[in-house]
């Protein structure tokens, strides 16, 4: 599902004394099947951009066109288009409420009138896609899961209806490193297999460069840069003014780059890929490195 913003601005509380501009004159096109990371400081406009694309908000000015349908100050995206969009908001596990994981994951399908057998089949497949064994988790209470398991079950509840556009708002926030890595691995697999259009809001540069084909940098409500992950890495120092903080991996990559500038020809996007690059540089590296 393609997404296009044409001169889009958004003001929260427009026309009131509490009006707060959040997005200003943004124009950008996103092709169907792209994975786009949205980076920037808190309050930079990235979450508002994602909510406008998902039809959760309407622009104050300009047009948002999703799958050929238009949203503007006067109109919302039509229901048939909104049903093709999924949104994973911050801490989605807080929305779990059914008696069992299987019922929770299948909730949206039941509301759409999908037959019970099909609901169960698709709910089991969605659980499997996020790394939760349906045999072990389908009948369990969602309130007896770990934090990471709850997060993955909640994401399965969005993926179950196979949205063509999925918005993720800080999906790894609050997870411990192990749970975060496990979730990222499963999201990578889902993105490769299903090829939805993805808008991925994050503060984590490592996740942006690992998952995305493209990175949009926001600053004070404006689209400040539109780059590939490789371009972001090559010019990282220039983009730090937008609130980007180097992670240990980024610092390690720059340390390598000072001694071996050719690493920037095709920058590794994960610690494992950097380790493989170094091993190959020293001779006889491992094969099958992840890009």
From TrEMBL:
Coiled coil: none
Membrane-topology descriptor: Peripheral membrane protein
Domain ABC transporter: 3-245
Compartment annotation: Cell membrane
SUPFAM superfamilies: P-loop containing nucleoside triphosphate hydrolases (SSF52540)
Keyword annotations from UniProtKB, A to Z: ATP-binding, Cell membrane, Membrane, Nucleotide-binding, Translocase, Transport
GO cellular component terms, semicolon-separated: ATP-binding cassette (ABC) transporter complex
Gene Ontology molecular function, alphabetical: ATP binding; ATP hydrolysis activity; ATPase-coupled transmembrane transporter activity
UniProt signal peptide: none
Recorded family membership: Belongs to the ABC transporter superfamily.
PANTHER family xref list: HEAVY METAL TRANSPORTER
Protein name: ATPase
Organism name: Hydrogenibacillus schlegelii
């Amino acid at each position: 599902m393609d997404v296009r913003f044409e001169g889009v601005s958004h003001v929260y509380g427009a026309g009131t004394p509490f009006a707060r501009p959040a997005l200003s004159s943004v124009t950008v096109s996103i092709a169907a099947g792209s994975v786009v990371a949205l980076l920037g400081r808190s309050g930079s406009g990235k979450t508002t951009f994602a909510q406008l694309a998902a039809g959760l908000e309407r622009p104050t000015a300009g047009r948002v066109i999703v799958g050929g349908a238009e949203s503007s100050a006067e109109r919302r995206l039509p229901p048939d288009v909104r049903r093709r969009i999924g949104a994973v908001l911050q801490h989605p596990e807080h929305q779990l409420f059914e008696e069992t994981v299987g019922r929770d994951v299948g909730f949206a399908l039941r509301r759409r009138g999908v037959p019970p057998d099909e609901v169960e089949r698709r709910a089991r497949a969605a659980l499997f896609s996020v790394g939760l064994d349906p045999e072990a988790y389908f009948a369990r209470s969602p309130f007896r899961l770990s934090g990471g398991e709850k997060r993955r079950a909640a994401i399965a509840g969005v993926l179950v209806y196979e949205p063509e556009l999925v918005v993720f708002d800080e999906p790894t926030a609050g997870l411990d490193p192990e749970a975060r890595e496990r979730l990222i691995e499963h999201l990578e697999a889902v993105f490769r297999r299903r090829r939805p259009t993805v808008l991925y809001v994050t503060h984590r540069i490592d996740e942006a460069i690992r998952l995305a084909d493209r990175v949009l940098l926001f600053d004070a409500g404006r689209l400040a840069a539109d780059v590939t992950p490789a371009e972001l890495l090559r010019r990282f120092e220039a983009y730090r003014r937008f609130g980007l903080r180097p992670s240990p991996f980024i610092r390690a990559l720059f340390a390598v780059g000072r001694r071996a500038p050719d690493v920037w020809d095709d920058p590794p996007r994960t610690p494992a890929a950097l380790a493989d690059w170094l091993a190959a540089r020293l001779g006889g590296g491992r094969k099958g490195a992840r890009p």
